[in-house]
Amino acid sequence: MATVVNSVSALHELAGTDLGLSEWHSVGQHQIDLFADATGDHQWIHVDPERAAGGPFGGTIAHGYFTLSLAPVLLSEILTVEGMAFGVNYGCNKVRFPAPLKVGSRVRLGAVVASVDDVQGGVQVTLDITIQAEDAPKPSCVAQVVYRYYL
């Protein structure tokens, strides 16, 4: 169940809050292929299941940036911001990919609100996120992502 906030003051109250975990989502080869087409990154380890089967991970893996790109949709399951004119993805302060995300895995996102700061016309929310594959010993992505919400 998502935490729903509808004001700047409610966002400020979330500073330091663990928002919990999203639902599990499957990552399929078709998604990876579409991402490769969108970015032009067709490295065999991502798009050639036969060749990748003999590679270091025993199959294809998601691009790191594909994994990171799951953050907004997974985050929307645990945080909903309403009552603002609009919000934007402002960027990332830190991103790491500690373990590969194997195609066919299920992933979920966890998030902690690291900080909430006023900015001209709105508020900036910084979140520490972790994208974890089911049964994996290390996360596939850890990042600090920054969103801005404007009044």
Poorly predicted ranges (pLDDT <50, ≥5 residues)?
A: none
Give the name of the CATH architecture: Roll
Shape: elongated
**Separation, N- and C-terminal Cα atoms:** 25 Å
If helices are DSSP runs of H or I spanning 4 or more residues, what is the number of helices?
A: 6
Which CATH class is shown?
Alpha Beta
Strand content: 35-45%
Whole-number total of structural domains? 1
Radius of gyration: 17 Å
Order of helices and strands: EHEEHHHHHEEEEE
Q: What is the CATH topology descriptor?
A: Thiol Ester Dehydrase, Chain A
Classify the secondary structure makeup into a structural class: alpha+beta
Number of β-strand runs: 8
Compute the average pLDDT. Answer: 97
CATH superfamily: Hotdog Thioesterase
Percent of residues in helical segments? 10-25%
Largest sheet: 6 strands, antiparallel
Describe the structure using short key phrases.
25% helix; two-stranded parallel sheet; single chain; elongated; 151 residues; Thiol Ester Dehydrase, Chain A; six-stranded antiparallel beta sheet; 6 helices; alpha+beta
Overview of the molecule:
The protein is of the alpha+beta class. The chain is 25% helix and 39% strand. Strands 2, 3, 5, 6, 7 and 8 form a six-stranded antiparallel β-sheet that branches. A hairpin with a 2-residue loop joins strand 6 (106-119) and strand 7. The longest helix has 11 residues, at 29-39. The two termini are 25 Å apart. The model has no long low-confidence stretch (mean pLDDT 97).
